[in-house]
Amino acid sequence: MTSSTAFAFAGTAPPTSSTTTPPTTSGPPSACESYYTSACGKSGAALKSALNSIIRTQTKLSYDQVWDALKVTDQDPSNSNNVILLYSGRSQAKSTNGGGANDWNREHVWAKSHGDFGTATGPGTDIHHLRPEDVSVNATRGNLDFDNGGNAVPEATGSRYDSDSFEPRAAVKGDVARMIFYMAVRYQGGDGFADLELNDQVSNGSEPKMGRLSVLKAWSAADPPDAFEKNRNQVIFDRYQKNRNPFIDHPEWVSSIWP
């Protein structure tokens, strides 16, 4: 995000209220200590498997609980009453969540039809890839894969779409890519859900696949994790799911797993 995401977060761990500034964090663990110990020194398929074993240990939320969680994870650092919408970049009142045309709702960045997991507890409620977004913008994105090009998206300046793909605004392209990478590592078919995989295609439909891989890799490289994204990862770990997105902590692991 061009402005709000550049702010540092201050204060201590927030109480239950979702209008309190998210906590200051001590920073992510390094590759070879603490959380990522078993991934140290690995690459390729071995790294992917090790990361899956680490991040699959998590606290799962209900779909209703996601509403309140997003009011904390995506809080506007400049206005504790608001959240920042992912594709739109707009700061909007937390209280306006719902189904109306100008409300915000829960966007599944890995489209829930790609693997047919719906809103079931698990991938359907995993807040590492669920973000607040304007209802109409969310509808425009639908279940499109990610790629460059297309027509301008109303209410989401800098985002574009066409019949088979969606391109988010530049400031969150890397965020989107790293959420997709997380999902492909976290959900590998071993816990009752589909094996989510990346490919270099669009129009994946209901297949448990998402593309375009080459574009997502380029987006991640061009838009590295910023303060907002790092803080979000830490808040999810500390307060909600107790697992992390490894590609926010270590973006270099993208090219190791998907060379």
TrEMBL record:
Keywords: Endonuclease, Hydrolase, Nuclease. Pfam families: Endonuclease_1. GO terms for molecular function: endonuclease activity. InterPro entries: Endonuclease-I, His-Me_finger_sf. Residues 1-30 are annotated as: Disordered. This is Endonuclease. It comes from Lentzea sokolovensis.
